[in-house]
Amino acid sequence: MVFDYIEKYPHRTKQILGVSYEQRHSLLRCAEKRHQEIKVKQESQKIRINASGGDRPSKLSISEQVCLCLFYLRQMPTFQVLGMLCGVSKTEANDTFHDWIPILRDILPSSLLEQVSNHESDLLFVQEVLTNFRLLVDSLEQRIYRDSDQKEQQKYFSGKKRHPNH
Description:
Elements: H1 2-8, H2 13-17, H3 21-45, H4 62-75, H5 79-86, H6 90-107, H7 112-116, H8 120-132, H9 150-154
């Protein structure tokens, strides 16, 4: 499972989720806080006939749900594969992703296109800039953990130069 792997190999979190292990914990705290605020607001607006707490509990913890969402955004698997990797059905994987994506959008900074999408004149300007000029992208290579066992390391060795700090 993805969650177990990240806990066992925290130094590989950035490769798998796109954020470091520490960033994941910080993001999780913010996401949990925002999730709780939304639940409280929704609960205060509900007109209840039945007592609260009657919903079917999720198979995944909040931490696992956020991790599922980050994994999807980084790796883009099908929901069938995502469900298999996270131990849930494809429907639950899909529902979990769509439940958490608005929260993550709310707490994380948006892209330039998302920032201007509500202002047509700004959007047209950004689209013109992106189509009339060359866009350079610096794709920095991410360091990969190298196992101390020589035989295990050779499975993943690419032949590239070592990082100066190694």
